[in-house]
Structure formats: structure tokens, C-alpha cells
Amino acid sequence: MSKTYNVAVVGATGAVGIEMIQTLEKRNFPVGQLKLLASRRSAGRKLKFHGRDVTVEELTQDSFDGMQFALFSAGSSISKEFAPLAVKAGCVVVDNSSCFRMDPNVPLVVPEINGDDVKQHKGIIANPNCTTAITLMALYPLHVAFGCTRIFASSYQAVSGTGAKAIAELERQVDQIVKGQPVTKEVYPHQIAFNVLPQVDSFLPTGYTKEEMKMENEGRKIMHHPTFRASVTCVRVPVYRAHSVAVSAEFAKPVTVEAAREVLKQAPGLDVIDNPAKSEYPLPLYQAEKYNCAVGRLRKDCALDNGLCFWVSGDQLLKGAALNAVQIAELLV
Questions:
Q1: CATH top-level class for 5-128+321-332?
Q2: How many alpha carbons fall within 13 Å on the CB side of residue 285?
Q3: Which one of 99, 243, 293, 309 is the catalytic residue?
């Protein structure tokens, strides 16, 4: 009989938690016992796993006894409090919050890029920011080939990044507008339906948001590239679940579109969709629910030396969160 592992999912009823459960099932992760953990409010709910009902339990200090893996997606404050308890109970924690990402003792991992870093874990491994992970799926192979010095980027981020309530808010607002009703908002400071919001996360004194700085800070750590620079504008768009990013990258070595395309075609977890003559390029609508990210619109950057522009799109809940977390656990199995 093959070895199985007891797995806890923290934040099991959230948008990412539900994807984690489905991803464990779809990828046939060797789960022995599955424990679903959430707030007291969600305890008692039933979720399906391999056709059977699993009852959601309230997260407590003793929740991790007998577990080998704990996948966390319940926000930084929960991770900060409970991840160390899970480690103490003998779990390896894969944490989807920003809590431990920049901790020098915690590996920050995208398996296709720096999977070997998992070997240095001391109990906790961090999942990167979703926009960063999706961007690096296309940028890192190019960096290996041509040496990326800096990027300028704009993100087009789906509402799923804010959570299940934001998905519901977009649906509700579209319905209200179609019916000619007043638009109500709870999650975002402005209407998101038929609009774009040039703010993701809170503002820093520099005028950048926290989200915008994650690309540079996390990118440096994941790519092992301490001088990498990124100037990013993060924008929330009325799309349900796939993020897209427009990137202008500058390289140390000369780069051609043909050479870049060959590099990207070899990259794991990435599809090249790039046929402008037929209007073929990655679309968030079609990247939703796909494991791979996709890159297209490849062209020489006319404002940068050794520059290349590209457009990359990927499912925020999968490669940006749940899939990446399960892939990390797979590396450890």
C-alpha cells in the first residue's frame, strides 16, 4: 500500500480553500485523513472530497494533532497565530498568506522556478503573491536565458483575489445595473462592475501599494536575484478569477522575439498563445480553471534597450494560490 498523509486545510470554506480541496482531489494527492478547518461561523458545513462529505471543524490550538501537512489560506493573522502550532504538532505548513513570505528562514516557492528551496524549510513554506507567481512563470525562463534587470508592469487582477465576497459583489452589481437598480458596494471602495480600480491592497508612503511592491520583493527572493527591480501598477478589473499582467522587461543580453518564444515554449507550466494575425493571445476568460499560465503578445520593447513586451495570464485561485500550494506539498511527498 502506498504511503498516505493526513492533510489539514485551514480556511477550507474560502475561495482558495475550496480550490485546495478540489486540487488535492484532482491531482490524486495521497491524502489519508482530510481535516477541514475554518472559523466557528463555518463549522458544521459539509464539503465533498472524493464523493464523500467531510464536516468542517472549528480551528483550535489542538486541530493539528496527527496531521502531516497543513495548507493555510485564512489570512495573515490566522497564519501568524496557528502556523507555529501546526509545526509544533509535527506538520509541514504551506502558507498562502503574506505572513511569512519575506521571513529569511522561510522558503518562498514556485515549484517550476525554485522547487529545490523547499529542502531548506524549518516547518513553514510560503506561497507567493498570486500576481507575482503568474508573472514569474513567464519572466523567469526569460531571465535565465537573457538576464532580466528590471520590469515595468501593469496588472489586471480578478476579483477572486479579494475572496468569495468580492466574486459575489461583482455578480450582484452586474445584476443591479442590468435591472436598472442602485448599485450597492461592500467589499471595494468603488463600484467594480464595468469599472477598473487602480488600487490593490493598501497604500504605502511612497504612493505604491503593498501589492505593487510584492513583485519586486518576492521576485528577488524566488528568482534568487537580489538586484531585480520592478515598477508595477496593480489594477482590479471586473473579471472573476484569472489575473493578467502586461510586462515590459529589460535584459542584460540582447533578446529577439524568436529566441524568447523558443525559451517560453520549453518553460514548464506555461502555454504560448501568440498569433496576432488571428487575434490569438491569452485571455483571462479562458485561463480560468486551467493549471497552466499562458503568455503572448511577444514583441520588442521600443522604449527599452534589450527590451521585450509580453502579456501573461493565469488562474488566480490555481497557480496564484491553491495549485501552487499543492505542488509544494507534492515536492515534499
A1: alpha beta
A2: 2
A3: 243
Q: Letter for the amino acid at 51? A: G
Where in the chain do CATH 3.30.360.10 domains reside? 132-316
**CA-based angle 150:156:270, to the nearest 5?**
70
Q: φ, ψ for residue 203 (rounded to 5)?
A: -80, 145
Active site residue 91: no
128, three cell numbers: 507567493
Q: How far is Cα 220 from Cα 106, in angstroms, rounded to an integer?
A: 14
Specify whether the CB–CB gap between 295 and 310 falls below 8 A: yes
**Cα 325 to Cα 5: distance, rounded to the nearest angstrom:** 15
Bridge-partner residues for 92, per DSSP? 69
Annotated active-site residue 243? The verdict is: yes
Grid-cell match 509544494, residue found: 328
Spot the catalytic one: 91, 99, 130, 234: 130
pLDDT at 188: 98
pLDDT digits (tens, 9 = 90+) for 190-215: 999 999 999 999 999 999 999 999 99
The structure's pTM equals 0.96
